[in-house]
Design goal:
The protein is mainly beta and 166 residues long. It is 13% helix and 32% strand. The chain is globular. The mean pLDDT is 92.
Length: 166
């Protein structure tokens, strides 16, 4: 534990505290590659609603997403990024039925189905809930980064493949 973890926070002193170095303006992304990962712990706050606007019609609608944390198990990467734990948060755009339940139809929730499959949680014979993903793994993931077309300084990382560890 650092010394700061033992001292009470003094907000008045903080307001006059100076720093001598510039601060980072962007988060370091996980480099492209394949990694062993565990799914981290999460709760219902991982479910969010995101407003998206159709580029053609200009109409906006709310889309449900589930943000799942992945904890990468790579000591060299921890050292390279200067972190005690390397995480990647993957956003799953969800397809829901009219009753608000996950749609299991053709071409619906495919990425979530792929994740469930590598975790042996994609069986017709067993009920499933998103909470069953918590703290599961290890699995292999492939991370690929892309650049925002409108802002070349902005990078996105996504998991493009899930695989069982054999």
């Amino acid at each position: 534990m650092s010394m700061a973890e033992h001292l009470p926070f003094d907000a008045d002193a903080f307001m006059n505290q100076t720093v001598d170095e510039p601060m980072a303006t962007q988060l370091q992304t996980v480099p492209d590659g394949e990694y062993t990962a565990m799914i981290g712990d999460f709760d219902s706050t991982a479910f969010k609603s995101v407003t998206v606007t159709n580029k053609t019609s200009g109409l906006s609608q709310d889309r449900p997403v589930l943000e799942i944390p992945f904890i990468i198990q790579d000591d060299a990467l921890k050292v390279k990024l200067g972190r005690e734990q390397v995480t990647h948060r993957e956003t799953f755009w969800l397809d829901l039925n009219a009753d608000g339940r996950l749609d299991t139809g053709a071409d619906k929730n495919v990425r979530l189905g792929q994740l469930r499959n590598v975790l042996n949680q994609n069986s017709a014979s067993a009920p499933w809930a998103p909470s069953m993903l918590r703290n599961m793994g290890p699995i292999r993931i492939k991370i690929v980064s892309t650049t925002d077309k409108r802002d070349p300084d902005r990078k996105f990382t996504n998991i493009t493949r899930y695989a069982k560890i054999t």
